[in-house]
Amino acid sequence: MAASPAYYSDGPEALIVSLAMHGDRQAFAELVRRRQSSVRTFMRRSCNDAALADDLAQQVFLQMWRKLRQLKEPEKFGPWLQRLSINQLLQHQRKQDPLYLADDDTELPAINQDRPDIAMDLDAALASLPAAVRLCIVLSYHERLAHREISDLTGIAIGTVKSHIRRGSERLRELLAAYGEKS
Amino acid sequence: MNEERDPLLESLFAEPVEEPASDQFVSTVMAQVEHRQRTLLLGRIAIIAAILLLEFALASPLQSSVSLISDLLSVTLIDTSNAWLGFFLTPVNSVAGIVGLMLLGIHLLYRRFMV
After folding, report:
1. Which residues in chain B are contacts of A179 at CB distance < 8 A?
2. What's the pLDDT tens digit per position in A4-30?
């Protein structure tokens, strides 16, 4: 007998993951439903192109379908999917530009002095950062990864990760100062 | 290691983002999964069909080869009119017997000089 939709939408994630691991399509669809927002937002913030971000997110979920059986512990599904997303992004970006993360000492773009009052939202501010700095910031703030984890996942030296996050945070604060004043 | 995050940025990252159409996204992913499964299934069927075809195609030549080799190995080397002599020579009076003796000789030589 097929389970009711509520059975999936209300079930604990580890159980849904276990069902999906055994080929239950409805369970898989439920996992996509639950996690799509997080994966798509991560992609959007990282690559600043909504269409491309959705394509990459779809690739992540297709990989998830293919590799889900390899997941040993259903409880670790979250970090596993996060890793899948990051690897998918890095793979795509490196294909586009092999030196994607090599801009260690890239100067950050200057703030528009003519329009200091210009209101920038977070995505626009992120888009103004160099790719490597943006990735480190997104992994730190959106994915909440530690510096060491970011270094391990991206292959960027730990010192460079720290420097990217520090410089990126400073620049974002400058660009988004208006939000700070409002709050 | 100081990993404190900027509170302003933390609050901005934590703000809910505009939700893109989620049902459509899920449908697209599921359609791709189904397409992938269909492709995999068709691929498997094609491989099985190819193996079966090869088996049918090669079955006859393989049988012919086996039959030819067994015929060749059983060819008598010397025709003897004496029944008793023929009986005693049977183990070596054929291609198979000569091949067997040659292999035995090679084995003995190998053991004598190489081991």
Report:
1. 8, 12
2. 667 888 889 999 999 999 989 999 999
